[in-house]
Amino acid sequence: MRLNHPIRREPPENTIPLINVVFLMLIFFLFAGSIARDDARKIEPPLNILEDETIRSTGALIISPDGKTHFEDSEISIDDWMTQQEQDADSRGPLKIATDGSLEADKLEEILKDLKSSGRTDIVLITRRGSK
Amino acid sequence: MRFDAPVKRKAVGLTSLIDVIFLLLLFFMLASSFSRYQILDVASGGEGGGADSRPAYLRIHATDKIDLNGQPLAKVDMASRFADLSGEKNVIVAIWSGPEASVQDVVDVMSSARQSGLKTVLVTGN
Predict the structure, then answer these.
(1) Would you call A40 and B37 a contact, using CB atoms and an 8 Å cutoff?
(2) CB B111 within 8 Å of CB A47
């Protein structure tokens, strides 16, 4: 009697369908998401029914619900932010401000007045796309 | 020298490929954000610009208390009232907001007016 007959090995698991699915997920996240830093993630910008130009919130002046102005996670005064924007060569284009939807409109108008007094006329408010 | 030695090709391992793809997937899943923002121009109307026609004056006292040229305006028929206004030419809607109005209220009114093709300006106090 021969005992050392060859051991039957399990065939390796077929991994091709797994790779297919993972590839599809990778492509989805590549196209659907954006890597750009989202500065406005902590606040909830107001909803806007208009279908307008999309924009990134990177580099925007963030106004928290208590009326404080922030830039990149640190508090900043409006004047400091303005000088920073003037010096920064990459940030050509409109001045972006992002506020929480629940902020008092008077606070926003105060900040707008300060920004306008410097002579800039291209100020945009960041809104969320959405319908009611 | 033997040139005709049989070349043995080993199949490329798939495991390392999957490793890299998983890492890429993990990175993109964690690093990407899905929020979509859009712009609303709030700077139109500088100081001292004269208007040709009388602007329509819209006041937001609170979320549900809006009046247009002195007459109360409900949010549901805002669009039709703005459409009536846009029949006249060059009408600008001047938006004043009271202490109880929020940014969302102002944005609602502004986007509704712009949808009807009207220009808007924000009236800032003092």
Answers:
(1) yes
(2) no
Give per-residue pLDDT as tens, B86-124.
777 677 888 888 888 888 888 888 888 888 878 788 887
Predicted structure pTM score: 0.73
**Residue A94's closest chain B neighbor by CA?**
B41
Q: Is B42 on the interface with A (CB under 8 A)?
A: yes
Cβ <8 Å between A23 and B21: yes
Model confidence pLDDT, tens digit, residues B5-61? 677 777 777 788 889 999 999 999 888 888 888 888 887 655 555 556 677 888 888
Return the residue of A nearest to B114 by Cα: A50
- CA distance between the termini of chain B: 98
Which parts of chain B fold into alpha helices (H)?
14-31, 78-85, 103-115
**ipTM higher than 0.85?**
no
Q: Tokens 């602007």 label which residue? A: B55
